[in-house]
Design goal:
It contains no helices and 7 strands. It is mainly beta. The N and C termini lie far apart (about 70 Å).
């Protein structure tokens, strides 16, 4: 008898792009749910153009109610996405929620943002 073990990965349907308007020098913040301790993280699907009118940075947020000295491993931890207007224009980018080493596996979730930067 041969046993086969496979992990099924569910992918969520693509969401409609999120439209964001920001002024030059202004920052808009979006919080995305996640759990990086499982290996899944939010990352850019494609690198941003070096002349992009928006600067995108990501960091991990604070886990609500976590004990600062003894945070719970495996607890959800949000990803904070900051979009700062650099110069007037428009740009779009997609974030993928996946394990970066699984290059042949589709993202579990994606989020697309269309950002318009105004003077």
């Amino acid at each position: 008898m041969t046993a086969v073990c496979a992990m099924a990965q569910e992918t969520a349907p693509a969401e409609a792009p999120e439209l964001i308007t920001v002024r030059v020098g202004e920052t808009v913040t979006v919080t995305l749910d996640g759990n990086p301790t499982t290996g899944f993280t939010w990352n850019l699907a494609e690198p941003m153009n070096e002349n992009s009118p928006v600067l995108v940075t990501m960091s991990y947020g604070r886990v609500p109610d976590a004990d600062e000295e003894n945070p719970c491993c495996g607890a959800p931890c949000p990803t904070i996405v900051k979009m700062t207007g650099v110069h007037a224009g428009a740009a779009s980018f997609t974030l993928e929620y996946k394990r970066v080493w699984e290059t042949d596996t589709p993202a579990m979730r994606t989020r697309t943002f269309v950002v318009t930067v105004k003077e």
